[in-house]
Amino acid sequence: xxxxxxxxxxxxxxxxxxxxxxxxxxxxxxxxxxxxxxxxxxxxxxxxxxxxxxxxxxxxxxxxxxxxxxxxxxxxxxxxxxxxxxxxxxxxxxxxxxxxxxxxxxxxxxxxxxxxxxxxxxxxxxxxxxxxxxxxxxxxxxxxxxxxxxxxxxxxxxxxxxxxxxxxxxxxxxxxxxxxxxxxxxxxxxxxxxxxxxxxxxxxxxxxxxxxxxxxxxxxxxx
Length: 223
Ligand code: GRF
What we know:
By secondary structure, the chain is α/β, with parallel strands linked by helices. It is built from 6 helices and 12 strands. The longest helix is centred in the last third of the chain and has 24 residues, at 166-189. The mean pLDDT is 97. The protein binds 5-O-phosphono-beta-D-ribofuranosylamine. 5-O-phosphono-beta-D-ribofuranosylamine (GRF) binds at residues 11, 13-17, 90-91, 111-113, 138, 174, 177.
């Protein structure tokens, strides 16, 4: 059996996705270990959660650096010191440096609360409601140079309830984000996923479309 997957988690705020990972590891349902949690905000709840779990919690604060490049270099120096297999961006609200994105291509993922390629960037729930979307959701994708633009690995779909507001929709999507992220990490932990050029490979086969969450499992959907 492969060694537990070493995860570095990047988070700017609340850290509910981080907590879902920690709980799944604690419950023995995810064969991984969180080797460090990194944030651009010293007060992030995610760092508190990491400390509570006895995990290295590191704040790298942009204001302490003269340049973007200096910040990116310091952040990745700290991340690389814990030797992760995979970097998981879970609510990390800053753009990552281009050189670091390139160096970690295929080994860095992000969870984004929309059905990519729809509604990139911020306030995705508001965007979905404003567009009159009947369906919304979340995506896990490989990080590429384009914001929220890398190859999508897996998605969860949530029907929009007529008349609901963005906060209600966000809460229902978040509820499905956690199993989505955990199921995706399960495939990484089993060494079943990788990136080949621009293609997501599952068990050595190119995925024609993102995996879809059904309950707590990821499934392949026919076109
Ligand atoms: C999630 O909605 C995630 O998809 C987005 O930011 C939010 C982070 O939530 N990228 P949390 O910090 O994990 O609770």
